Amino acid sequence: MAKSMPPIADLLDNRQRILVTGGAGFIGGAVVRRLLKESNAIVFNLDKMGYASNLTSIKEVIEELGDTYQSRHYLQIVDLTDIKAVQKAVRIADPDLVIHLAAESHVDRSISSPDVFIESNIIGTYNLLKAVRSNFEQLSQKRRQQFRLHHISTDEVFGSLENEGQFSEITPYYPRSPYSASKAASDHLVRAWHHTYGLPVVLTNCSNNYGPWQFPEKLIPVAILKAIAGDSIPLYGDGLNIRDWLYVEDHVDALLLVACQGTLGRSYCIGGYSEKTNKDIVTTICAQLDKHYPDSAPHAQLIKQVTDRPGHDRRYAIDSSRISSELGWKPRHTFEEGLARTIAWYLLHQDWCKTVNQKISYSKKRLRKQKLTLC
Ligand code: NAD
Ligand code: TDX
Predict the structure, then answer these.
(1) Rounded CA gap, 316 and 247, in Å?
(2) I want to staple 231 with a disulfide (CB 3.0 to 4.6 A). Which of 91, 105, 128, 226 is the partner?
(3) Ligand 1 center from residue 34 Cα (angstroms)
(4) pLDDT over 70 (residue 194)
(5) Predicted TM-score of the model (pTM)
């Protein structure tokens, strides 16, 4: 039976110094905002400030809360591949809790440029584990007892499903893209540091997130922004690949529950109870935009099938029963509510999207080569 979400300050208990890696990204930003708004913890936000990073949302929260709260957010501009910088940042943060979200996260980029995924996601996690272990071993007994490192991973490590079945914590790993292989490798390193060195860790594997402030290269923001602009909305392959969608704030609930109350050494699968084909997603977005902009309706005429993503996983689906029964988590938003909020947010933040889009520098060659065909 799902319980309601406990207050975050209660969940954290005596953990006052929180190191969030990737806190300038989409999900990390949502975690940092919740920690600032709903607890008194000091947040060390370690991020390399790459193309997907943006601090606008955090600055807005700091302004909303008043100047004094600024002293609870410390940005550490550090690349996890730089071991010396990581060691220094961890020493300064001296954390009671580490929430590790930093990673290169876009599958299409991992296909065209895998190097940075291997470096950031595998070597970066390795460096973080080394630095955190060394700091952990110097903590007082009291602080060691409450210390945890929470590693955030993805359902993609499990591979691809056909029509039946769901991923769970006992599904064998079978990653099939450079991104998912690099995340799988990092999961293995985290477990190894737990079993070999006794580092207190918890892990989560989550399905597709969506919501405000997501970098506009992932399906939902791409579809919204292309439709508003009257541009073609690219739908890979037959559009029948299935993802299980979760509103980002519901993921943050799950992450904070697992970080503070999950059983050490365990992993938890997190899903949205919301399996949809990509075609459903883009047609639903278009139908919503028809209501906002009736003059440009039907937006669905913009949907174009394009060449498929190489090695495109067919279906992801998650069995969330462990996190639900052990920790009482369930999503608070239906897909319809979450999508409506997300569309409304992107309609209001088109300038932000334009600004961050200018940062995109990766080769779009593969996408440009795709021949557009009518859906
Ligand atoms: P994102 O790309 O929006 O943000 C990732 C952040 O990590 C960025 O700010 C980036 O600069 C930072 N980063 C990357 N490499 C780094 C490095 N070497 N050193 C320091 N910082 C670095 O990604 P997101 O969607 O917020 O995903 C966050 C985490 O959640 C990732 O680990 C991802 O694998 C995982 N995840 C994401 C989803 C999803 O749907 N977005 C689903 C499941 C799991
Ligand atoms: O333009 C597009 N057209 C399209 O059809 C884009 C960007 C995507 N797609 C398809 C590919 C996928 O089947 O939509 C689906 C979702 O694609 P993405 O938004 O790129 O997400 P995905 O590849 O499923 O991975 C996401 O979920 C798991 C995150 O990017 C990962 O970080 C997370 O681990």
Answers:
(1) 16
(2) 226
(3) 17
(4) yes
(5) 0.96
